[in-house]
Design brief:
The complex is a heterodimer. In chain A, the strands form five sheets. In chain A, strands 5-4-3-6-7 form a five-stranded parallel sheet, with helices on one face. Chain A has a five-stranded parallel sheet with strand order 17-16-15-18-19, with helices on one face. A four-stranded parallel sheet of chain A has the order 11-10-9-12. Chain A is an alpha/beta fold. In chain A, strand 1 (about 15) and strand 2 form a beta hairpin. Chain A has helices spanning about 5-15, 40-45, 80-95, 110-115, 145-155, 180-190, 205-210, 215-220, 240-245, 255-265, 315-325, 355-365, 380-390, 390-400, 450-455, and strands at about 15, 25, 30-35, 60, 95-100, 125, 140-145, 160, 165-170, 200-205, 230-235, 275-280, 290, 300, 340-345, 375, 400-405, 425, 440-445. By secondary structure, chain B is of the alpha/beta class. Chain B has eight helices and seven strands; from the N terminus they run βααβαβαβαβββααα. In chain B, helix 3 packs across helix 4 (about 105-115). Chain B is globular and about 60 Å long. Classes of the chains: A alpha/beta, B alpha/beta. The interface between A and B is large, with 60 and 49 residues. The complex binds iron/sulfur cluster.
Chain lengths: ~475, ~200
């Protein structure tokens, strides 16, 4: 048999129907649902007298607009309340697994999937959310869909997909101390741009990803969408199995052993071809900071904000000029001289236990700069509990930072956590688009350790020099 | 879904690269649970001042482009969040077609799901359309899905590629779920084989 990529193996094993000239109909193993992109889909089902085909393969959670404090008080935001009420009503009407904001298992949809073992190798996973790519870290094929497609998957457990091309991103070598998975991801988006991955499914290979923790792999896969790719994946290995073993939704005993045997067949065969290969040496990866209004606009922490005249083509010059104007930057300033008002450690990119540990290690025994607001938002209740068991909450609180409940929070500012116009943040999230963290807010994307250090110094600092 | 065969309408040029879905419709407007009322919110933060008054220089607020139904914009239109509210907002404003040199993947599929036609033309052709729309008054183009062609009445004509399956669905106004349910026995068989 011809050698196959991991992507091709997963694709081929999920085809329900294939006709020439058409997209393929693929079977979906896990459908994750949240409040923002589902209400109109449930309405569609109701209107057409349809049911949910596989409630057992559907998991619903409230995460995007839930408040991250004072949950015991009535919701102030009437419209958010309506949306959450609709979700509760829909899940009970259609008989679905639902974690509301009071559930011990609630959290950001892309954090709780792997955490509870819903996400497993070899699965096709979809969710009405672009960062579904996160789940690819478990060796799954996972991608975001729109609301009409959510309705389609609810009704049929299948999805029409045109086969993407494959791209291998290989990073060999060893990351320097202080350089994290987030920097690898920002380095990749910086290199190939926000359109570099359009139409592709990425597989991340090389020693850097093999050596990376599962949390780190999730961070990298999460940002695949920022490079334009719908999905990103890492081959499952012993680390994957160790991470998953014993998680609530995972098989046990002989079923577990059988599952692992199957998963071991997933990795890309020797000699299989990708449509595109990108190689980046690990030594090119340094702590990165975004300076503009898309995640491809990155600079090394030791660098400077670019000026429009640094670029040749007039479209790039225009884009840079526009980004600088929005960001309130002149161009040419040292990244380390940029003063910040707020830090946000959270989001499905960087809110797992390892991220909180990295931030806490930097903060321990120090105080945040007086003018800085610091929001630490764990990705799930389980992460929060674990962090509290380790005393991380104390470290943050003692430093003058806020310790919140789980949710998307300031990643997209649908709940009360948001930037004021002109306010500048160092954020561990994934998008620095105009207005993403609140209208007029200015976002710089960084790793958790870099965000924590910025909170203490009041400006960006090179985490490699931190003591 | 309404069928789409051909459309002639006024061009609205939004000469901007990387128009992400957060810009098309900011997240704070995604809390509604129905599918209507998004048209007024299209491009909200660049379209209105903080007090709600329209920003004069924004293209949708210019008298010249009132009633436009063909949106023409820069590369990577619709990147970012998967929110289908983005095509809803564009469509509910009155657009039938979006023309750009490239599109975000999820946005493109969302457009097809709603009968909004995303047309990919070369960067040069897009710039031509933008320039003509800015210079001429009431500049219109015709977008023909059957012949896969965009043309105007002053000599512009360009072919475009479109996935043949998506084209077929749009031409016939077919909804995906109905189509899939015709395959129900294949789905049953798949589930049985993988149980
Ligand atoms: S944390 Fe941000 S990116 Fe992740 S699911 Fe929530 S809103 Fe989307």
């Amino acid at each position: 048999m011809a050698p196959k990529t991991m992507f091709e193996k997963m694709w081929d094993s999920h085809v329900v129907s294939d006709e020439p000239g058409k997209p393929s109909l693929l079977y979906v193993d896990l459908h994750l649902v949240h409040e923002i992109t589902s209400a109109q889909a449930f309405d569609g089902l109701r209107m057409n007298h349809r049911t949910v085909r596989r409630p057992d393969k559907t998991v619903v959670v409230a995460d995007h607009n839930v408040p991250t404090k004072d949950r015991d008080k009535p919701l102030e935001d009437e419209i958010a309340k309506t949306q959450l009420d609709a979700l509760a009503q829909n899940t009970s009407e259609f008989g679905l697994n639902y974690f509301d904001m009071f559930s011990e298992k609630q959290g950001i949809v892309h954090v709780i999937g792997p955490e509870q073992g819903w996400t497993r190798p070899g699965m096709i996973i979809v969710c009405g959310d672009s960062h579904t790519s996160t789940h690819g870290a478990m060796g799954a094929m996972a991608f975001g869909i729109g609301t009409s497609e959510v309705e389609h998957v609810l009704a049929t457990q299948c999805i029409w997909q045109a086969k993407p091309k494959t791209m291998e991103i290989r990073v060999e070598g060893t990351l320097a101390p202080g350089v994290t998975a987030k920097d690898v991801a920002l380095g990749i988006v910086g290199k190939i741009g926000t359109s570099g991955g359009i139409g592709h499914a990425i597989e991340y290979t090389g020693s850097v990803f093999r050596d990376m923790s599962m949390e780190g792999r999730m961070t990298v896969c999460n940002l695949s969408i920022e490079a334009g790719a719908r999905s990103g994946m890492v081959a499952p290995d012993e680390k994957t199995y160790e991470y998953l073993k014993g998680r609530e939704q995972c098989p046990t005993g002989a079923d577990w052993d059988a599952a692992v045997e199957e998963w071991k067949k997933l990795p890309t065969d020797e000699g299989a071809k990708f449509d595109t290969l990108l190689e980046i040496p690990a030594s090119d990866i340094v702590p990165f900071v975004t300076w503009g209004t898309n995640p491809g606009q990155v600079a090394p922490i030791t660098g400077r904000v670019p000026k429009p005249e640094d670029y040749e083509n007039s479209q790039d010059q225009f884009a840079v000029e526009k980004a600088l104007k929005y960001m309130g930057l002149q161009g040419g300033e040292r990244i380390q001289d940029i003063m910040i008002d707020t830090i946000f450690v959270g989001s499905c990119t960087n809110s797992r236990i390892e991220d909180l540990r990295a931030a806490a290690a930097v903060v321990k025994g120090k105080q945040k700069a007086p003018s800085v607001r610091a929001l630490i938002v764990p990705g799930s209740w389980l992460v929060k509990q674990q962090a509290e068991k380790e005393g991380l909450d104390k470290i943050f609180l003692d430093a003058g930072m806020e310790w919140r409940d789980a949710g998307c929070s300031m990643c997209l500012a649908m709940n009360p956590d948001r930037l004021a116009p002109g306010e500048r943040s160092a954020s561990t999230s994934n998008r620095n688009f105009e207005g993403r963290q609140g209208p007029g807010g200015r976002t710089h994307l960084v790793s958790p350790a870099m965000a924590a250090a910025a909170a203490i110094a009041g400006h960006f600092v090179d985490i490699r020099d931190w003591s | 879904m309404e069928a789409f065969k051909q459309h002639t309408g006024k061009v609205v040029p939004y000469d901007m690269p990387n128009v992400d879905t957060d810009q098309i419709i900011p997240a704070r407007f995604l809390k509604k649970i129905d599918r209507v009322g998004f048209g007024e919110l299209l491009f909200n933060d660049v379209r209105y001042n903080a007090d709600g008054s329209p920003k004069e220089d924004f293209v949708l607020n210019q008298e010249k482009y009132a009633g436009g139904s063909v949106l023409v914009s820069g590369p990577q239109f619709g990147i970012g969040s998967s929110r289908e509210h983005a095509p809803w907002a564009i469509q509910q404003y009155g657009f039938k077609v979006v023309i750009a040199p490239s599109f975000g993947d999820i946005f493109r599929s969302n457009c097809f799901q709603n009968g909004l036609l995303p047309v990919q033309l070369s960067e040069r052709d897009v710039q031509t359309l933008i320039a003509r729309a800015q210079e001429l008054s009431d500049y219109q183009v015709t977008v023909d899905l059957e012949t896969q062609e965009v043309h105007d009445s002053v000599g512009f004509s360009a072919k475009f590629e479109v996935d043949s399956f998506r084209r077929d669905c749009l031409l016939r106004g077919l909804d995906d779920i109905g189509l899939t349910l015709e395959k129900i026995s294949a789905i049953d068989a798949f589930e049985k084989a993988h149980a």
